[in-house]
Amino acid sequence: MSQQPRGLPGFLRRTLRNDVLDAPSASVEPGLGVVGAGMSNVSASGVASSSDPSDAAGITSGSPETPNASLGGSWTSESSGSGCKQLRTVAFPPLPRERGGEESSDDSIDNNENDGRGITQKTTKTLATPSKNSTHSSTSSTTQQQTQNNNNNNQQAQPRSYKETQFETIISSSIISLRDLRKISWNGIPPHHRSLTWKILLGYLPANTSRHASTLHRKRAEYKDARKQHYDIPDDSRTNSEQETLRQVLVDVPRTAPEVPLFHNDRIRRCLTRLLYIWAMRHPASSYVQGINDLATPFIAVFLAGYYNGVSCLDGEVMASVTDEMMEEVEADTYWCLTNLLAGIQDHYTSDQPGMQRMVMRLEELVNRIDVDLSSHLKETGIEFMQFAFKWMNCLLLREFSLSCVIRLWDTYLSEESGGFEDFHVYVCASFLVHFSNELQQMGFDELFQFMQVSILWSNVFVMFQALSIVNMCRFSIKEHAYSKLGRQRNRNITEQCICP
Amino acid sequence: MFFFNVSCRVFDTSSHVEFHGKRYLSGHSNNDTMTTRADEEYDYLFKVVLIGDSGVGKSNLLSRFTRNEFNLESKSTIGVEFATKSIQTEGKTIKAQIWDTAGQERYRAITSAYYRGAVGALLVYDISKHSTFENVERWLKELRDHAEANIVVMLVGNKSDLRHLRAVETDEAMAFSEQHNLAFIETSALDASGVDTAFQRILTEIYRLMSRRNMAAEDGANAPKLSSGQTISLNADNKPRKNCCSG
Question: Is there a contact between A453 and B82 if contact means CB atoms under 8 Å apart?
Fold first, then answer.
């Protein structure tokens, strides 16, 4: 954390200093990442701890009376007594940008959810666990594993977590219970299961495990045909509008996730170009819309990592060992999963983008209900939700967070029974606004706008903050929302499901 | 005579206070924050939009002008982005509020909403891609349909550093801009040539037109008072502008 960003406003600099730089002085267990320690303050302020039964009681009693106390408050606040307790009982993940760190983060998050047995539960990634594609993990993946071993050298001998065993049981049964899979995935999917789990949750693979291989085979062949029909044809046989679409895709692909080295790779870029173009050809009502390219990136990253036991491939180093066959499979899988994802939010990208407008309106309404002060401040400054939240909806926060954060967030979106990307996403956006409420209320129009659109600012905060607290914040916000305002049955359901997994 | 509309939306939403000849925005707007009060001091606030095809370099023109930054790997703009910068011209401080719009067709419905109240537009094309120049007419139509009638439009040929790839000759673009009564300049956000000049020129142009309009408006306001009739709308319309240009 030495490269502290200069442009951060005071409150964020404080965050970095207090929570991260001073963290080692706190009594942190070995194996806890520095950032993990920083994040404990989040739990101290009453957000992350909701899953611990003993602490949850405190929150429940506190929240209805003081709706904004925890969310509105900065997470820079010093840890309270219970926070210190949390420090010792909850294993927090190290930084996601280190390979291996990100992977273990999810596992450790989940330990928290299980039974509070705490840090002794913190597992290594199950290196020995055969991934479904373990046939592909060749020499390079051995290297990967070694790297990872080094990263996690403190934890090698530790047993697999309860949650992970549970996950394994669910995913390896012959008929996978979608209900159970959703429930357990909501709090994060272990990285080596993510590729398969996403495919199931998106409806790309059936619940019946015995049909997986044949489905994959059929779908991949189908994609190959589509490619022959739409992409592998001479340019002069394309219509003007098709050429225009191709031109737009070609303009955008090199600008897709430029901060992630993986997407500088030519093969990845060609694969992205093809699948976006083919998707556009087969969905003429919306065709290709800028931002859809962003939505494909988590799939590519996750499916590629699926061949390497879930080890993050974002640095692009694995590309040397990726075979053409693997690339083709990743491309086809990404295409179909992107198709399924977009099918659920189709009118976000059709003419005039009615879905997007609806989402923005719902966000505005939600903030209106949860945080009247913020809402009226935004009105006073003259800023419109459409001006800043449009991008959040259009790119599903991929522009605001690091890719590894988004991947974790999507675990939850995909686990939502109905419309994680349509419905739950609005709550996530609302919880950010409410979280920054105090700061936002100090800002005028210009600063507000700048704050909302500077993604670097967000990712610096949230790389540290990580997906755990994001989702917990969101969860908390919904819970609060359910208690205080609407109390609709649907919200209660989410709440119960979230708080007591 | 070319009349010009001051960005009424902006001026009307906040009251103005005279203070030692300088004008401050008052009320619940920008300067309530504790940050850079000095930055809030300006004589005029102009809203300018950046339009043009996707990938011609609008966002980089904006970041070069406002922050002197250039990013070869900048992402596509979704919806709109926004930045401000103050410049000096003819002894006045002008704050430019620049809206950078997404170039793709699908976003027109959203971006055209931002033309409202804009007093200037930089219509950008890429000198190395002729199709982006061919689309300039479509963008002009877009402005005619959605923007104020008096908006100042400047045609900007960006990426002038790509000499070896040039597909649009300077003469061709200049002839086009004369024909359509547009200002014209070639820029390179990459090597920064022409960028400041482009913004400086359009803002100065807006300022001059606005001053001329204000003077004309004042004359117009005085004259009917002496005579008779139909002054009501003019007077009402003039009041804020009179205040505006007396600083």
Answer: yes
Taking 80 as the threshold, does the pLDDT of residue A494 lie above it? no
Match 């690339």 to its residue by tokens: A327
For residue A391, give the chain B residue with the closest CA.
Answer: B78
pLDDT computed for residue A475 by the predictor: 53
Q: Tell me the C-alpha distance between A438 and A455, whole Å.
A: 19
Contacts of A290 in chain B (CB under 8 A): 54, 76-78, 102, 104, 106-107
Instruction: Output the CATH code of domain A354-499.
Output: 1.10.472.80
Place A474 in a pLDDT band, splitting at 50, 70 and 90.
Answer: low
Fold classification of B8-209 (topology level): Rossmann fold (3.40.50)
- Distance between B142 CA and the closest CA of chain A, angstroms: 16
CA A484 to chain centre: 27
Q: How much is the ipTM here? A: 0.75
pLDDT beyond 60 at B24: no
Task: Give me the residue spans of the domains in chain A.
Answer: 209-344, 354-499
Residue B185 reports pLDDT greater than 70:
yes
Q: What is the value of pTM for the model shown?
A: 0.70
The nearest alpha carbon in chain B to A241 belongs to: B105
Determine the pLDDT at residue A322: 95
Q: What is A42-97 written as a DSSP string? A: HHHTTSGGGGSHHHHHHHHHHTTT-TTHHHHS-TTSPP-HHHHHHHHHS-----TT
